[in-house]
Design a protein that fits this description.
Layout: H1 9-13, E1 25-28, H2 34-39, E2 49-52, E3 73-80, H3 93-111, E4 118-120, E5 124-127, E6 130-142, E7 145-155, H4 174-177, H5 184-199, H6 205-215, E8 221-227, E9 230-240, E10 244-249, E11 254-257, E12 262-269
Parallel strand pairs: 1-2
Antiparallel strand pairs: 2-3, 3-7, 4-5, 5-6, 6-7, 8-9, 8-12, 9-10, 10-11
Helix pairs in contact: 3-5, 3-6
The structure holds biotin.
Length: 275
């Protein structure tokens, strides 16, 4: 079932019990990228959530495009102010990536209870092996401190033909996978509640690590990653919420891969479990 029309700020915010994320909500019918709105000079207060029905220049990670038919997705960016740049911080990029991934998983599952969305490091949410949602964290200096945008795109109502051919059957939507009618409003509201749960205060990193691992593809995968132009092969052994994914390298030694700077090029499950 399609949502009965556009998302609307009043509906998203009605009775929403949040302390920080989504205290103010804007819904745009069209914009270049909600991340740009969230990072704009006049981008408003901390915790502002910007939704759009359509993006003309939606961005994905690594300079990729993120496109979606009008009204088919939940496209949202949340503005956080005073974000430290350092990785080892409560609101650093690695922590924001993990918190957003957990929040997206739970928001998606709330709208489609027959699905079990899974996190694929660093920040993809997948269902039945296909990408359902992505997270793009961006930041810039603003008067008064560093502003950060947590940009989230959740495919909701797309049918199979809606995805660009170069995605080669690798993308999907809640509607395509679930037997339930999908309500974008449910996804949008739950997304803000879950983001607020993790980010209203500095998150409990032990709990965040566990929440992420509980929703993630199992550790013990053999992966191929690229960081700073170098390729690495190894086996995933743990997750450090501020440093990233800990990998036992094939060539010896362990290394942490920061989600903000690493690309996953391939992975194979080899049946080992986590710590
Ligand atoms: C990815 O490559 O997986 C990240 C995709 C992030 C897309 C979202 S949609 C809302 C926000 N605005 C953007 O331009 N990008 C993010």
């Amino acid at each position: 079932m399609l949502s009965p029309g556009m998302l609307c700020a009043e509906d998203i915010g009605r009775g929403l019990e949040v302390r920080r994320i989504g205290r103010r909500i804007t819904v745009l019918s069209e914009t270049e990228s909600t991340n740009d709105v969230a990072l704009a000079d006049d981008g408003g207060e901390d915790g502002l959530a910007v939704f759009a029905e359509y993006q003309t220049r939606g961005r994905g990670r690594l300079g990729r495009r993120w496109s979606s038919p009008r009204g088919a997705s939940v496209l949202c960016s949340v503005r956080l102010l005073d974000c430290p740049r350092t990785a080892q911080s409560s609101f650093g990029p690695a922590v924001l990536t993990l918190a957003a991934g957990v929040a997206v998983c739970d928001a998606a599952a709330s709208a489609a209870p027959d699905l079990s969305p899974t996190l694929r490091w660093p920040n993809d949410v997948v269902v039945n092996g296909k990408k359902l949602a992505g997270v793009l964290i961006e930041s810039c200096w603003r008067p008064g401190g560093r502003a950060c945008a947590i940009g989230i795109g959740v495919n909701c109502l797309q049918q199979r033909g809606h995805f660009e051919r170069d995605l080669g059957g690798l993308a999907t939507s809640l509607e395509a996978e679930s037997r339930h009618p999908i309500c974008r409003l449910t996804v949008a509201r739950r997304l803000l509640v879950e983001l607020d749960r993790w980010l209203a205060d500095p998150p409990d990193l032990t709990a965040l690590r566990q929440a992420w691992l509980d929703r993630a593809e199992p550790l013990g995968q053999h992966i191929h990653v690229r960081q700073g132009g170098d390729d690495f092969l190894g086996t995933t052994v743990d997750l450090d919420p501020t440093a990233g994914l800990i990998v036992q390298l094939d060539g010896g030694g362990r290394r942490a891969f920061d989600p903000a700077t690493t690309t996953l090029l391939g992975s194979t499950h080899i049946g080992r479990t986590g710590p």
